[in-house]
DNA sequence: ACAAAGGTCGCTCAAATGAGCGAACCGAGC
DNA sequence: GCTCGGTTCGCTCATTTGAGCGACCTTTGT
């Protein structure tokens, strides 16, 4: 993985006087920020000797450096995920013990991520999931920008404020225009969907899909437990799509395990941004978490599509994606 | 104390993407050992930006560096003691909870210290205390050198192998000549002491006192609990010397709180190396621990005499000497 | 709109540092 | 004594890095 890494414990330990001396030198250099030349003068050594002593101190484990993020961010897995899937950014949120709050934690991080990366006058697209809903709730500031809803709503999940409310809330916060979509996500047939897309309000939202600068979407799994879309389908549809190899979903766009989009009649039956449109968005932020191993596989599948530029997920998903069984390491 | 120290948490925390980015850069630099130029190329930044990011990562506390010694050595207090008392070396042993083993721990460290600093063909002088006895027991290797006993024995403490046995053991280990002293440390009058000093065996030991290259001595307090010498005196003697300001003792040489030697009739009544002779020894290692606050004051007193070049002590003593009440800090 | 103020950026130049190398040193074996 | 690995040391030279500075970009107050 890394060509040069730090050795753990290389050679024989010295006597106590030497250890204390090395510690003093290491303190000077690493904690007090003195130069090796200064240290050499103070201790009456050559600067080369000081350099060697510092190497020794590190190889003996006297100097301990670790990179650890505040909050619950896993720096190492974030980096590994980013590299593994060729992402622009990956943010792994450590949920520690409280798996109940995973969604909330992801939402909170995603909210601050948006505050961070969205520039003024962007056109921001928001899909919907419970995680994104939490994100909307936790958003506290956003530069002035237009907020567009990316898909219709799922009637099953409109209790606690659905997609429309989130879009409105964020737009208000951003002090910009809101383009909500008052329509269901999935319709029984293509004709109904086409009719709805012609509705002025909905068309206004769709009109922005080709000019989006940042899209925030959720990744859904493909089973009863991990997918809101799956749950919204009839048993026959479920079987049919599953037979086509579907194992993950993002904004009602279906993907097989290799990240290939699975086209079907569903494409025409949903009110949603399309995968092709997403591909043209400069920044696609996917939020995915709070699921089991199957959900993690769905995330991997969608990531392989190359549509996602930034991923926000939890450590459980990251662990599975990285084939990393250990609960903690370094 | 230190002009440049690391700030703890300087400016405002950034968003999660920035934090993860900083962590990735910090990992590259601090853990993978890449140069800032390399990192800059990889991330498409200028090397100056990388340097600033690394500074930011440190000030945000993302990079955590600590200097920590293996075993039970307190690097920070060792250093502080060394500076405070102008010593060549100071070694503070962390006794943690088990105060019972303090003496043994000090002895063990002192033993390894001697193995480390004694060069072949040195003339090594050993005083006596329970700590030095533990040192003798823990000594495992020593270059070939002559071992000289520095003072007579205290009859009260000859149970578990007195000074003589320690000297013999160390000399055997070093494969060198042993010069033990078969005499009491304190005698009733100067005449008896003088007679004893004329004894051929004792004189042979004394003859080496001016050619010692390393002396290992113990520091004793000045009350019933902390001093073997004090205990060996008559109540009248105790009072008399106490009235003279004595508050610490090293090899039966008495010192007041400022490190001035307190001369008295005791000087002539002891069979021991003198303070003046010790002053001419290039390396004087003092071992002192396992006492209360009064013992710590004694150690400070003796250190102020300037006779000691290397101190081995425990964290309790170090804490008192440094006016450092906190049980742990950084 | 404009200017002042504060922040960030990348440059120059000098200092700090690393890689590699031969000299000196050490201990072991003859 | 002597030579033979093996180790440590400090050197040269090229690279890396830091300090300070002016250019530029935002933001804020007028």
Explain how this protein is built.
The structure is a homodimer of 330-residue chains. The first copy, chain A, is elongated and about 85 Å long. In chain A, strand 3, helix 6 and strand 4 (146-149) form a beta-alpha-beta unit. With 330 residues, chain A is an alpha/beta fold. In chain A, strands 2, 3, 4, 5, 6, 7, 8, 9 and 10 form a nine-stranded mixed sheet that branches. The two termini of chain A are 14 Å apart. Chain A folds into two domains: 1-65, Winged helix-like DNA-binding domain superfamily/Winged helix DNA-binding domain (Arc Repressor Mutant, subunit A, Orthogonal Bundle); 75-321, Rossmann fold, CATH 3.40.50.1360. Chain A is 43% helix and 14% strand. In chain A, helix 2 (36-43) crosses helix 3 (47-59) and helix 5 crosses helix 6. Chain A has helices spanning 16-31, 36-43, 47-59, 75-84, 102-117, 130-138, 163-174, 190-197, 200-206, 228-232, 235-243, 266-269, 275-279, 293-304, 315-321, and strands at residues 63-67, 89-93, 123-126, 146-149, 178-179, 214-220, 246-250, 253-256, 283-288, 310-314. At the A-B interface, helix 1, strand 1, helix 4, strand 2 and helix 5 of A face helix 1, strand 1, helix 4, strand 2 and helix 5 of B. Strand 1 of chain A pairs antiparallel with strand 1 (63-67) of chain B. Chain A binds a DNA duplex (30 and 30 nucleotides) through helix 3.
């Amino acid at each position: 993985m890394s060509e040069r890494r730090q050795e753990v414990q290389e050679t024989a330990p010295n006597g106590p006087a030497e250890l204390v001396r090395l510690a003093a030198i290491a303190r000077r250099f690493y904690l007090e920020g003195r130069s090796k030349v200064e240290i050499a003068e103070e201790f009456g050594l050559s600067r080369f000797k000081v350099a060697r002593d510092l190497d020794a101190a590190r190889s003996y484990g006297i100097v301990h450096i670790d990179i650890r993020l505040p909050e619950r961010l896993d720096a190492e897995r974030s980096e590994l995920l980013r590299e593994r899937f060729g992402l622009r950014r990956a943010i792994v949120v450590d949920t520690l013990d409280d798996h109940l709050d995973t969604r909330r934690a992801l939402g909170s991080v995603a909210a601050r991520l948006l505050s961070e990366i969205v520039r003024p006058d962007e056109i921001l697209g928001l899909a919907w999931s419970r995680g994104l809903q939490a994100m909307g709730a936790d958003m506290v500031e956003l530069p002035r920008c237009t907020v567009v809803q990316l898909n219709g709503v799922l009637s099953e999940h409109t209790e606690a404020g659905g997609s429309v409310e989130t879009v409105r809330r964020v737009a208000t916060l951003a002090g910009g225009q809101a383009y909500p979509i008052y329509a269901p996500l999935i319709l029984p047939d293509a004709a109904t969907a086409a009719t709805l897309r012609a509705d002025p309000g909905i068309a206004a939202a769709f009109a922005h899909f080709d000019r989006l600068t940042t899209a925030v979407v959720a990744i859904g799994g493909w089973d009863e437990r991990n997918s809101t879309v799956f749950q919204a389908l009839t048993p026959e549809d479920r079987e049919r799509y599953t037979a086509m190899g579907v194992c993950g979903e993002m904004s009602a766009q279906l993907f097989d395990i290799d990240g290939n989009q699975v086209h079907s009649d569903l494409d025409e039956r949903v009110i949603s941004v399309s995968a092709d449109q997403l591909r043209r968005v400069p920044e696609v932020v996917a939020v995915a978490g709070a699921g089991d191993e199957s959900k993690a596989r769905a995330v991997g599948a969608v990531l392989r599509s190359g549509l996602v530029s930034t991923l926000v997920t939890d450590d459980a998903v990251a662990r599975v994606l990285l084939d990393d069984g250990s609960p903690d390491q370094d």
